[in-house]
Amino acid sequence: MEDENEEAINGDSMDEGLSSSPTLLDLSSFQLHDLDGVELPSTLIELDLTANRLSALDPRIGLLPQLKRLSLRQNLIDDAGVSPISQWDAISGLEELVLRDNKLTKIPDMGIFKCLLVFDVSFNEISSLHGLSRVSNTLKELYVSKNEVTKMEEIDHFLELTILELGSNRLRVMENLQNFTNLQELWLGRNRIKAVNLCGLTCVKKISLQSNRLTSMTGFEGCVALEELYLSHNGIAKMEGLSTLVNLRVLDISANKLTSVDDIQNLSQLEDLWLNDNQISSLETLSEAVASSREKLTTIYLERNPCANSASYFATLRQIFPKIQQIDSEIFA
After folding, report:
1. What is the pLDDT of residues 259-314, one digit of tens each?
2. For the chain, what is the largest distance between any 2 Cα atoms, rounded to a whole number of angstroms?
3. Is residue 256 part of a domain?
4. Where are the transmembrane segments (predicted)?
């Protein structure tokens, strides 16, 4: 396998790639242990080292003056292995750094990167966001999912942030979101959050709080720009706080404790409604509950509710929603 990789790196196909596009070098999935024998042209703008066996960074990477995007995803890099990057002033103009799926236990020192737009340290073993205060306030996308983080801290200076991904951590409280006036997506699924606190945030368009410990839906009322809301696998017993979310297109409240469908009469843009795995007993009030979206809704999930056992289940739903294209796993032409 290594012989084949060496041929691909040094052979004709790689030479042709470099001559036609000397700004991009894609070495993903070569299972490389190091970059010995690999030429790194000084013209490189993007270097992709995804899915290799690297445990340290080749110092020549720090001498690429035009480098903007560097992916080290899915390697074996630990804290010591990544530390030299904090001294590589020649690549201080880096805009995207991906360290996803490595062996980091802390946020590395990113202080020299003054133009950073995308920073990804997901799927590591990071227990604290300490160190993010040194990351440039130019950041637009921050990904720290699947770690061991317990507190949302050192993030309030990211005024340009559009995507924040902190899913699959150990967060218990939503906090320090008030400055994110440009935020479009907030991903906090698979944490331990018990209450919604958006700190006055109103601009966000996508929110995921799936697989948390919510028992109430209150807290979203001010998010009038919201288009997608994911709340599955919680302990919510009542649909509420939704009437102001008039731009909502996707609503997922599956796998909760709902007994009825409420507070969505005003949601005229609703296209996808996921209510499966609840305790909704009847379809009788559904028509009134979805009055504004009857002509818009194309997908509804209600399976594994008592109401889905009705003999007229599909017929009733198709009558309520004339534009329906999918009911549970059943797709209609």
Report:
1. 999 999 999 999 999 999 999 999 988 989 999 999 999 999 999 999 999 999 99
2. 71
3. yes
4. none
Chain-centroid distance of CA 51 in Å reads 20
Rounded to the nearest 10 degrees, the angle between the axes of helix 12-20 and helix 2-10 is 40
| 197 phi-psi bin (left φ>0, alpha ψ -120 to 50, beta other) | beta
Which long-range contacts link 190-197 to residues 24+ away (Cβ below 8 Å)? Answer: 191/166, 191/167, 195/219, 196/220, 197/173
CATH of the domain at 282: 3.80.10.10
Is the pTM higher than 0.90? yes
Q: What angle do CA 313, 314, 318 make, to 5 degrees?
A: 120
Question: Each residue of 85-135: pLDDT tens digit?
Answer: 999 999 999 999 999 999 999 999 999 999 999 999 999 999 999 999 999
Burial, 315: exposed, middle or buried (Cβ in 10 Å; 0-12, 13-18, 19+)? exposed
d(CA 193, CA 141): 22
Structural domain total, the chain = 1
The CA–CA distances, whole Å, from 164 to 204, 223, 233 equal 11, 16, 21
> Is 54 a member of any domain?
no
In the chain, what is the straight-line distance between the N-terminal and C-terminal CA atoms, in Å?
A: 47
CB 2 within 8 A of CB 33: no
